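Format notes (please read before filing issues)

Several people have asked whether sequences and structure tokens are stored in separate files. They are not. Every record keeps both together, in the order shown below: the sequence lines, then the token lines. Line labels are part of the format and must not be stripped during preprocessing.
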Amino acid sequence: MLPSLVNSQYAYRAVLADTLGGPAGSWLELGCGHDLLPPWMDHNKEALPTGRWRIIGVDLDRGALLRHRGLAFRVHGNIERLSFRSAVFDLVTANMVLEHVEQPYELFAEVARVLKPGGRFIVHTPNARGYTTLAARLVPNAWLAGVANVLLDREQSDLYRTYYRANTGAALDALSRHGRLILEEINYVPSSPQLIRVPPLMAAEVALARILAMPRLAHLRACIVAVFRKPATVN
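Then the structure lines:
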């Protein structure tokens, strides 16, 4: 119905791969879970060039952390209070994590602290103004696990509390300035249909995605991929 409509993870992977293709270094993955990218993605096509990077993952979910096989080091901890020295990472990433952050100003300050001058912070997160997020926030908490399982085949162990305090362009701009980071790039990206298991609703969702393809409605798309940079010198 709309062949160009793919999951937003592919847009995130493209931006991440561009950075990974440059000079290698130390990479901190916030809320790393059990993989760098979802297991359903085609990892053989446009694979991430991770070989020269030292990847450190940090997560509060010890079980998911222990299942992660792509890390050089695993750290069980709170991403809002990072247990690392200042200016040690060339890259920090957060893939579908910011929506779960209770204190985003603290997180951005910590990211700015641990990044080396010139280092980048790449985020992929739901757009609080996107239709998928607006719909999800209408679902009562007691129903979330069942709805996620039926529509997205997600287990309850993969569901975490959401706050959506860093999930608009305005919020990300304010957070970057608070952390003294430069917002280099922000893209509002569509994603694959969430209602694929309910064909009549999926058809309506695809029709909506066609409308949101218009540039003036980009801010209403499902997800955000943004890139921040720590200045080479701090004024």
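For reference, the curators noted about this record: The helical segments are 8-20, 62-67, 104-114, 131-138, 141-152, 169-178, 199-212. Residues 89 and 115 are 5 Å apart (CA to CA).
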